[in-house]
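Hi L.,

You mentioned the student needs an example of a multi-chain input paired with its predicted structure. This one should do, with 671 residues in total across all chains.
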Amino acid sequence: MLVYIVKRLLLLPLLLLVFSVIAFILIQAPPGDFVTSYVAELAASGSSMDRLQIDALRELYGLDRPGYVQYFKWLSRILQGDLGISLDFQKPISELIGQRLLLTVILGLSTFLFTFAVALPIGTISATRQYSFFDYFFTVFNYVGVATPTFMTALILMWLAFSKLGITITGLFSPEYADAAWSFGRVVDLGKHVWLPMVILGLDGTARLARILRANLLDELNKPYMEMARAKGMPEWRLIIKYPVRLAINPLVSSLGWYLPLIFSGSLIVATVLNLPTIGPLLLRSLISQDMFLAGSIVLSYFGLAVIGTLLSDVLLAWLDPRIRMEES
Amino acid sequence: MNTNAILSVRNLKTRFTMDEGTTKAVDGVSFDVAPGQVVGIVGESGCGKSVTIKSILRIVQKPGEVVGGEILFRPQRHGENGTDFVDLAKLDGRGKEMRTIRGNDIALIPQEPMAALSPVHTIGNQLVEAVQLHRKINKRQAEEIAIERMKEVGVPSPEERMSAYSWELSGGLRQRVMIAMALLCSPRLLIADEPTTAIDVTTQAQVLNLLRGLQKNHDMAIIFITHDLGVIAQVADDVVVMYLGRVMETGPVDDIFHNPLHPYTKALLGSIPSIHTTSREPLPTIEGSIPHPFNRPAGCPFFPRCAAYMPGKCDRQTPKLERIGEHQSVSCFLHHEVAEEI
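Structure written out for the whole complex:
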């Protein structure tokens, strides 16, 4: 088990290196650069720059050099722990995304826990009481959950909360805590705000996971080990949770590999709609203004989160299923 | 009814109600099991032998349901005065009373040990659980019992097996683990559901010998289900021959083999290959095939395939299981005139 985890961890830097190349190519892909869009922005607001000024700006940021030189300069700075400076905000990038990254992870993990905490009982009861009212109700509920875009759910809930209850439910903090330093009060405030984005982001995943679990469980419920456990004299609910649910969870856990990264990066639109201080909206803005170093850092941190998510799911699966553990060692 | 019996199944009826129709999987089965006796239930696939034992254990799942009859069982070893029977058919299959009997007084050896063991739990975990469900003892003590039982059934180095998984064991070893599991709480009645079908012939013989030995040492009764008459001849004291959910004939194994009364029993015995028959001669088979459960024939279920079919009699009335001679009972109009009341 330990060997397995270490092996996976050793692979991590290599993966991130490959991803850094991809991230860089992706950012360079759109035509023009930061200066081009900066000039365009200036032109739109009525002012302008002369040719010399523009070239000086390009030289300052190294934008006149070939792509690979820019990449290696960027990479060597990252390896030294320096993410560079946002061209748009004129601030160190680590300062810009540090807290947002933390909030993204907090939101992502709570969404993930919410998803499992809700999907597990729904899927289990739907399968064990197949074709009951409960089952039909959640079948419909799940289809609606899968079919409704999350940002739409966010918009509807925002509108409902505002028009019926008169409260605004955007952001992750109350105004007084928004820019404050971390304190106990701020954590409590975050707890008060995080549940709504968590529910909105988690609905879709919950619906999917509950469907998958129901189908898996229906396969498991007729297996001979169920009969054996009954013949031992085990109470029905205890045996359902110990054996078939445990076995039906395995495919679910392997789906974490893609689900966790999806929560981290997929929250972009919802985060923008709900005005959440996560890295999603920042990525959107940096892409529009072609703030390449900022965008690169964000994309790279998304990759990092994806890799960590996959690693987590692999470790969890190996821990849950001895067959996988044996195979690997 | 045998007053000495520890289990007396009386007119048991189990049905499966589905949209397509109702299947009478078990349709009035009766037999007794005396203490320390091995009763073999034999019949083709789909004759209701598995449903019969699931009904006794009360683990028939929906849409199946025990709808009639009695399953009289004597759980206690003491006070065997014939009055302390519990009718399992009247208990709630999932209720506490039934659950304390299941796995404790009546244990099951399943058909496929591989599928009956969870692949993600250790052997030890599943054994300890079976003990702790019925005995208020700690994990350490439960482990000791589990290791003790594995030793008894001939599992080599049982301490190591405790942390092994089912897929790490051979087929024969897995079946031994299942037998050890069944013995954990020293049951009065062991139900073996075709315990030798999933393993090869040499291991089969070992498992049969083992079961025979254990039965003597623990003074257990065994219900042994199989479609293999050869196995029945080796292990059983009494035989119950089933066809389409009904008992055709029952009696001591010697009587059934040497003096079969029912045409179905005769046909079954006739289709066993013998070393004395001349080679290249086709093996006798039973004509036709088992009717679909939704299209059960009226009257005797076997009459469409019966060599001694009496038109106007066998297709009109269903013969009752009646005692003929000292020990044997048969449900056939060739031997008596008693019909089931409708």
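You could point out the following to them. The first strand of chain B starts at residue 7 and ends at 18. Chain B touches chain A at residues 54, 57, 59, 94, 99-104, 107-108, 110-112, 115-122, 129-130, 133-134, 165, 167, 181 (CB under 8 Å).

Best wishes,
N.
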